[in-house]
Amino acid sequence: MPQMAPVNWTLLYILIIFLFLFLNWSNFFNWLMKLKFFQTTKKPKDSPWKW
């Protein structure tokens, strides 16, 4: 059934992406926060977050 192939691949990609984000969410979030923190914040007072 070639018509079901794109749907199955799309669902597979979505599942892989969700699993990847779920397994690496904490590391990715910490990395993103550090990146934004070092790029946009030069002083602790300018940080939107308490930490």
How is this structure best described in words?
The chain has a domain at 8-38. Helices cover 73% and strands 0% of the residues. The protein has one helix and no strands. The mean pLDDT is 71. 0% of the residues are buried. With 51 residues, it is an all-alpha fold.
- Structural class by SSE content: mainly alpha
Largest sheet: none
Proportion of residues in extended strands: under 5%
**Secondary-structure element string:** H
What is the percent of helical residues? over 70%
Mean pLDDT, as a whole number? Answer: 71
What value does the Rg take, in angstroms? Answer: 18 Å
State the distance separating the first and last CA atoms.
54 Å
Record field, number of beta strands: 0
- The number of distinct helices, counting runs of at least 4 residues, comes to 1
Shape: elongated
Low-confidence stretches: none
Transmembrane segments: 12-33
Protein name: ATP synthase F0 subunit 8
Organism: Trigonopterus sp. 3 AH-2016
Keywords: Membrane, Mitochondrion, Transmembrane, Transmembrane helix
Quick overview of this protein structure:
By secondary structure, the protein is mainly alpha-helical. The protein contains 1 helix and no strands. It has a domain of 31 residues.
